[in-house]
Design goal:
The structure holds 2 protein chains of 2 kinds. By secondary structure, chain A is of the alpha/beta class. Chain A folds into 2 domains: 176 residues, Rossmann fold (3-Layer(aba) Sandwich), CATH 3.40.50; 126 residues, Rossmann fold (3-Layer(aba) Sandwich). Chain A is 39% helix and 18% strand. Chain A is built from 13 helices and 14 strands. In chain A, the strands form 3 sheets. Chain A has a 7-stranded mixed sheet, with helices on both faces. A 5-stranded mixed sheet of chain A has the order 9-11-10-13-14, sandwiched between helices. A two-stranded antiparallel ribbon of chain A has the order 1-8. Chain A is globular. Chain B has a 5-stranded parallel sheet, sandwiched between helices. In chain B, α6 links the parallel β2 and β3. Chain B has one domain: Thiamin diphosphate (ThDP)-binding fold, Pyr/PP domains (Rossmann fold), CATH 3.40.50. Helix content of chain B is 39%, strand content 10%. Chain B is of the alpha/beta class. In chain B, α3 runs parallel beside α4 and α5 packs parallel to α6. The chains are: A alpha/beta, B alpha/beta. Chains A and B meet through α4 and α6 of A and α5 and α6 of B. The complex binds thiamine diphosphate and magnesium ion. The site of magnesium ion (MG) has 6 residues of chain B, from loops.
Chain lengths: 327, 279
């Protein structure tokens, strides 16, 4: 496996997606194609969305290791399971809501119960799907996957992290769910960052409040923190990219320094990152937890930015929430 | 290729099928719960697979070249446990622990707990997709092994079965043989009353499969058909096996209520006598 620091093309252009704005699904497509050449055990399945999930590049390069299963997500998950039983490393991709919703019971009964080495890498998570509206936006996927025994759940925050996540899960044996997005996301992770399953990245620890964020909300949390600092608030930010297993050590450490905690995610406030953080801290270190996310409702059609604004997934909302708590 | 006794001799297979039925009835009576009818109806077919057709090594369950069996109708777990025990995957004494706390013999098969179980099943409708995936993986790895998948006739009401039927045909998966146990019973009654599945053979044909229709209790016909199915190329093949639910014990035969209840001690006695088993 090429280490990311060596991933520099001959012309000097970096291939590790450091410091660029890019959709995480695009990084997935590129990374998968690259890994396909290095590891012949990788097989890819899609359900008629390969141009959107970006598995198309892999399909062109390695047609005999790509299976379009058609619009049948349940069949796709179980076919991937069968492939894993012969030692292949299957990546199954479609939109997040179809992978985790339509095929939930297949993921439960076949992938997780038998503890199979299936990688479900779904794109179009959250509201930033945009114009397609509520039917295609997934605000429940993290809750649905997190509840399953044996499942690992990961939400990368930017392109640089996404590439590392995809590389890392090839070497991990067991079921994994990775949630990616449709829209471009700004870079947030520092060059020295190395992703490890179950390891949170602490940007800094705040003595007033710490924001535990995932996905696109990491960038918003960083912006909010910067703004709050100018007002004298001591804010910390944590990228909790692995939702399960949760980095409870990091979480407890920052909670113990905080007056309260904010969670921020592009998901329902029920059952996702906010749920996971609350479940853990309520037992070992009861502290006030405020959740930024979608409040128990379906999405809408609109531009990604308009939707984030309407549903309150913004820097400003985080800032206001924190100022209100501190006053 | 195998390290235990397998044969095409019909009398040998009949005797094995009889022993399998005896084991099923004993373990179910001991357990006090479980699925009697559907375990008995598939007994001849699965006996022919484990004691004649499939290349497998009971003392090396993960042998890479083995043929694979996927019990999509996972509620027939007692049948799978009986053939696994009788072919030597584990001690037959273990059959007595069926469904008991901490037994590897779960109510529905668990691949994490029991050697010889390829994948956990129990939720109907998923096995054929899994079998497709295994068959595709074997093909990619250039392993010549075959995959067998047993489905119930009620089970084929599940939409996913037909998704998988399309996939097998689309990818010309010919190292796969599906078997449908056509006993015309499910839980709530006859399939024709609950949700009509006819015409079964035409459906599979229309989905691009090579179809065999046989008597699922005629071991001669079963072994011949398993041999013929292996010669079908480019297409997947399906054996539609006409069976009688509860086959082998007249008081259970074709009775919908014996789907999910187990013999009483008295019934076990009658059943064993009928199967020529003393004691
Ligand atoms: C998805 C799912 N739904 C319902 C059940 C409950 N169930 C167990 S067996 C059965 C009937 C199966 O009938 P059939 O497939 O004909 O099996 P057989 O007659 O061979 O026992 C049902 C509905 C299940 N196991 N899985
Ligand atoms: Mg039936």
């Amino acid at each position: 496996m090429g280490s990311i620091t060596q991933d520099v093309e001959a012309n000097g252009e970096r291939k590790d997606f450091f410091n660029i704005s890019i959709a995480t699904r695009d990084v997935y497509g590129e990374t998968l194609a690259e890994l396909g050449a290095l590891n012949k055990d990788i097989v890819v399945l899609d359900a008629d969305l390969s141009s959107s999930t970006k598995t198309k590049k892999f399909s062109r390069l390695f047609p005999d290791r790509f299976f379009n299963i058609g619009i049948s997500e349940q069949d796709m998950i179980c076919t991937a399971s069968g492939l894993s039983l012969t030692g292949k490393i299957p990546f199954a991709s479609t939109f997040a809501i179809f992978a985790t919703g339509r095929a939930w019971e297949q993921v439960r009964q076949t992938v997780c119960y038998s503890n199979l080495n299936v990688k479900i890498v779904a794109t179009h998570g959250g509201l930033t799907v945009g114009e397609d509206g509520a039917s295609h936006q997934s605000l429940e996927d993290l809750a649905l996957m997190r509840v399953l025994p044996n499942m690992t759940v990961i939400v990368p925050a930017d392109g640089f992290e996404t590439k590392q996540v995809i590389e890392e899960i090839v070497n991990y044996v067991g079921p994994v769910y990775v949630r990616l997005g449709r829209a471009k996301v700004p870079p947030v992770m520092p060059e020295s960052y190395r992703f490890k399953i179950g390891k949170a990245y602490i940007f800094n620890v705040g003595l007033d409040v710490n924001i535990i964020a995932s996905g696109i909300m990491v960038s918003m949390a960083l912006n909010a923190a910067q703004e709050l600092r100018t007002q004298g608030v001591d804010v910390g930010v944590v990228n909790m990219s692995t939702i399960k297993p949760l980095d409870t050590e990091a979480l407890l450490m920052v909670a113990q320094k905080s007056k309260f905690i904010i969670t921020a995610e592009e998901h329902s406030v029920i059952g996702g990152l906010g749920g996971a953080v609350s479940e853990f801290l309520s037992e070992v270190y009861p502290i006030k937890i405020k959740k930024v996310g979608v409040n128990d409702s379906f999405g809408l059609s609109g531009k990604p930015d308009e939707l984030l604004e309407f549903f309150g997934l913004t820097n400003k909302r985080i800032v206001d929430m924190i100022l209100k708590e501190l006053s | 290729m195998v390290d235990f006794f397998q044969s095409r001799d019909i009398n040998f297979l009949k005797e094995k099928a009889r022993q399998v039925r005896v084991a099923i009835l004993k373990m179910l009576t001991e357990a006090g719960s479980g699925h009697t009818g559907g375990s008995l109806s598939s007994a001849d077919i699965v006996t022919a697979l484990y004691f004649y057709k499939m290349r497998h090594k009971p003392n090396e369950p993960q042998w890479e070249q083995r043929d694979r069996f996927i019990l999509s109708k996972g509620h027939a777990a007692p049948l799978l446990y009986a053939v696994l025990a009788l072919s030597g995957y584990f001690d037959v004494e273990l059959l007595k622990t069926l469904r008991k706390l901490h037994s590897p013999l779960q109510g529905h098969p668990s691949s994490k707990l029991l050697k010889g179980v390829e994948v956990s099943t129990g939720s109907l409708g998923q096995g054929l997709s899994i079998a497709n995936g295994i068959a595709l993986g074997l093909r990619l790895s250039k392993i010549k092994a075959r995959v067998y998948c047993l489905l119930g006739d009620g089970e084929i009401q599940e939409g996913q079965v037909w998704e998988a039927a399309m996939t097998a045909s689309h990818y010309s998966i010919d190292n796969l043989c599906a078997i449908v146990d056509l006993n015309d019973l499910q839980i709530d009654g006859r399939c024709s009353d609950v949700m009509k599945i006819d015409p079964v053979a035409k459906k599979w044909e229309a989905f691009g499969w090579h179809v065999f229709q046989i008597n699922g209790h005629d071991l001669e016909e079963i072994v011949e058909t398993l041999d013929s199915a292996e010669k079908i190329k480019v297409k997947p093949s399906v054996i539609i096996a006409k069976t009688v639910k509860g086959k082998g014990v007249s008081i259970f035969e074709d009775k919908v209520e014996y789907h999910g209840i187990t013999p009483t001690l008295k019934e076990l006695e009658i059943a064993l006598k009928e199967l020529g088993e003393n004691g």
